[in-house]
Design goal:
There is one protein chain. By secondary structure, the chain is mainly alpha-helical. It is 66% helix and 0% strand. The protein is built from 13 helices and no strands. Helix 10 packs antiparallel against helix 11. It is globular.
């Protein structure tokens, strides 16, 4: 970067073929909130934002899958979300077989009572996007409240902070700010600044820059 090299090329040189980790998916929530009503534009911006650090196709599609889950959660009518319809909409957006298979596994799990070890074995709990984004989506769909979804996501272990962050982004988009426990908000570092950024993002979205 300091030498003026293309940041996208730097990303590819650091990870031959590009990184397929979950970092791009973890940070994608603001983009999803801004472009929730235009999935085509959302994909374009997510892929561009992801490529600067996670250039592998599986990394970018994982970020788009996470962003799409947030977008669909925003668009869903409170209390009326159908988990199976939600999954079908996501399934129609992904191209790579590994994500299709994981979404199909989520469908099976929603009709059964899998143990945590079964969820980890099939969906994953590690740093790869394909081993964490589907896990976050399942944690959200398997629980109808914000706090239980978050607690479950973190309880799966592994890359628990990222899986928790992604679950929280989806659950927060659906349940709203009021669902976040006050005791958690009181401990949030830079809370005022984060809330100011959120309000500014909303103002730009509804009123224009």
């Amino acid at each position: 970067y300091r030498r003026g090299e293309d940041p996208y090329e730097v990303a590819r040189s650091l990870y031959p073929g590009g990184s397929y980790g979950n970092g791009a998916a973890m940070r994608v929530a603001p983009i999803a909130c801004f472009y929730y009503d235009d999935l085509g534009k959302l994909k374009e911006v997510v892929y561009e934002a992801s490529s600067i650090t996670h250039a592998h196709p599986l990394g970018k599609e994982g970020a788009f899958l996470q962003a799409s889950a947030i977008a669909l959660a925003i668009r869903a009518e409170p209390g009326r979300l159908d988990p199976f319809d939600f999954l079908e909409q996501l399934r129609a957006l992904v191209e790579h077989d590994i994500y299709v298979r994981k979404l199909d596994a989520i469908r099976r799990f929603l009709s059964s009572r899998p143990t945590r070890s079964e969820v980890v074995r099939e969906l994953g709990n590690s740093v790869e996007a394909f081993n964490s984004v589907p896990t976050a989506i399942y944690a959200f769909l398997a629980h109808d409240q914000f706090e239980p979804a978050l607690r479950y996501a973190v309880s799966l272990g592994g890359d628990s902070d990222t899986i928790g962050a992604m679950t929280g982004a989806i659950a927060g988009a659906y349940h709203g700010r009021e669902a976040i426990p006050a005791r958690w908000l009181s401990e949030l570092e830079n809370r005022d600044y984060i809330e100011q950024l959120a309000v500014r993002l909303w103002e730009i979205k509804v009123r224009g820059p």
